[in-house]
């Protein structure tokens, strides 16, 4: 059955005959190993002609507003006559399979970045090269990467733009495209891989995929990693200096479109379907990055060997060197270059803006010595937002300390009040009263705060917590 599926996949995806193809400005491309003929890349081949892909570079600056200017390395006057400035940093944003750089998240990302930074933002569009089969897009990204590298070369020549001022952001196949551009351009300041594609890249040699040597700093956000038994569209292995695995890196909170029981043979049969690659989990990577621009402290990653340990609280709070922020501000982490393949875990909210702040909560009760029910904390901010989190349920006793790790979706710096709340079960005495004797909260940076409830309340009545 599996062999049959491979035969079907072969005819669905196709391959390109030949050993080498050469294109002006970009050089030659071969289908020799490791580009083809190795495990995981048996069906890959040669890229298409760049002229057939209609590759465009749209420049957004604060001067262009919501509009853009097309620039071309082939026609240098388009750069000279544009608002591109070497006095600013430059960011390239690169879409993936079945997507576009003319609209949608790529353009929205450029416009948001310009609100917080005065940069040159270049949206790369290779829609024509990314709309065929997945395998053809895998082949074509080598040409796109070469075109980006050539454009950087011309920008350096025309405007003295330095690779040290360039940041490449790529999603899925766009992440490996950024890696190809970085491999060809020594000194790139930063590459951000947004859920780099897994099929045809997992376990391959570094020259084939994005890896830490492609830029001075490489950070990765994994949101749909293919981690057995689940099947995903992203790469699972670490492939940067800092690799972030929000919610474990495979299944994202708030998404419902993943089928973790999908068989590998079924995945191979549908891999040519572009619509599959627009899944919620896979797209969360660029959504998280987008929101990280707006919430600089809302995506703190904790160093840990595995997600299960992190989720249990084993890797909390941050070590003495601190923790990096996943997303836009990852490069502010002082220890980012101490080693490669550093794993960081965090949990996010299920809905936008996705930001969450991890806290360790310890509650000592007062009131009824023994009762049944559940206890909660309610967080409020100045904008009227509230979030309720259950701490414990079942048998409740004032002799026990209740511990819970929370990923609170209210910024601690904007929290105006915290309330204790409890609900009784069907058989709880109507006159029972409970209160929070003390609530100790440890934050991610290690600092602690202690709150007291002062007295008791009946069920369903919130008790305001104040500093002890």
TrEMBL record:
Subcellular location: Secreted
Its EC number(s): 3.1.1.3
Active-site residues per Swiss-Prot or TrEMBL entry: 172 (nucleophile), 195 (charge relay system), 282 (charge relay system)
Entry keywords, A to Z: Calcium, Disulfide bond, Lipid degradation, Lipid metabolism, Metal-binding, Secreted, Signal
Signal peptide feature range: 1-18
Chain sites annotated for binding Ca(2+): 209, 211, 214
Record's catalysed reaction(s): a triacylglycerol + H2O = a diacylglycerol + a fatty acid + H(+)
Family matches, as InterPro entries: AB_hydrolase_fold, Lipase, Lipase_LIPH, Lipase_N, Lipase_panc, PLAT/LH2_dom_sf, TAG_lipase
A GO-annotated cellular component: extracellular region
Keyword presence, Secreted: yes
GO biological process, one term: lipid catabolic process
GO molecular function: lipoprotein lipase activity; metal ion binding
Annotated Lipase domain residues: 19-354
Pfam families hit by this protein: Lipase
Coarse class of the protein's main subcellular location: secreted
Family: Belongs to the AB hydrolase superfamily. Lipase family.
Protein name (database record): Triacylglycerol lipase
Source organism per UniProt: Melopsittacus undulatus (Budgerigar)
Top-level taxonomy: Eukaryota, Metazoa, Chordata, Craniata, Vertebrata
């Amino acid at each position: 059955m599996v062999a049959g599926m491979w035969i079907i996949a072969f005819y669905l995806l196709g391959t390109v005959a030949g050993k080498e193809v050469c294109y002006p400005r970009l050089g030659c491309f071969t289908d020799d190993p490791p580009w083809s003929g190795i495990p995981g890349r048996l069906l890959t081949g040669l890229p298409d002609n760049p002229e057939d892909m209609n590759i465009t570079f749209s420049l957004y600056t604060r001067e262009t507003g919501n509009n853009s200017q097309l620039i071309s390395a082939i026609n240098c006057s388009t750069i000279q006559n544009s608002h591109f400035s070497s006095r600013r940093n430059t960011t390239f944003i690169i879409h993936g399979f079945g997507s576009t750089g003319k609209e949608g998240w790529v353009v929205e990302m450029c416009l948001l970045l310009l609100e917080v930074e005065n940069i040159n933002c270049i949206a790369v569009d290779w829609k024509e090269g990314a709309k065929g089969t997945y395998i053809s897009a895998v082949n074509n990204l080598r040409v796109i990467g070469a075109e980006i590298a050539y454009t950087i070369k011309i920008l350096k020549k025309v405007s003295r733009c330095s690779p040290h001022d360039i940041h490449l952001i790529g999603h899925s196949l766009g992440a490996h495209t950024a890696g190809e551009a970085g491999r060809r351009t020594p000194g790139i300041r930063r590459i951000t891989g947004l859920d780099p594609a897994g099929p045809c890249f997992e376990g391959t040699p570094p020259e084939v995929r994005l890896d830490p040597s492609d830029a001075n700093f490489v950070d990765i956000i994994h949101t749909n990693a293919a981690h057995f038994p689940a099947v995903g569209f992203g790469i699972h292995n670490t492939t940067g200096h800092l690799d972030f695995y929000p919610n474990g890196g495979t299944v994202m909170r708030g998404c419902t479109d993943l089928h973790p029981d999908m068989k590998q043979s079924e995945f191979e049969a549908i891999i040519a379907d572009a619509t599959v690659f627009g899944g919620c989990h896979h797209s969360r990577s660029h959504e998280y990055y987008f929101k990280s621009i707006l919430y600089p402290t809302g995506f703190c990653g904790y160093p840990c060997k595995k997600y299960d340990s992190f989720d249990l609280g084993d890797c909390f709070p941050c070590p003495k060197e601190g923790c990096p922020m996943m997303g836009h501000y990852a490069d502010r982490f002082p220890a980012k270059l101490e080693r490669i393949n550093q794993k960081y875990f965090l949990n996010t909210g299920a809905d936008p803006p996705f930001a969450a702040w991890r806290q360790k909560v310890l509650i000592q009760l007062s009131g009824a010595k023994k009762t049944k029910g559940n206890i909660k904390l309610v967080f409020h901010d100045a904008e009227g937002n509230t979030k309720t989190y259950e701490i414990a349920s079942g048998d409740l006793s004032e002799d026990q300390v209740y511990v819970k790790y929370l990923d609170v979706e209210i910024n601690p710096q904007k929290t105006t009040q915290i309330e204790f709340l409890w609900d009784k079960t069907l058989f709880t005495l109507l006159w029972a009263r409970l209160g929070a004797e003390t609530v100790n909260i440890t934050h991610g940076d290690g600092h602690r705060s202690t709150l007291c409830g002062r007295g008791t309340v009946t069920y369903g009545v919130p008790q305001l917590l104040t500093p002890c």
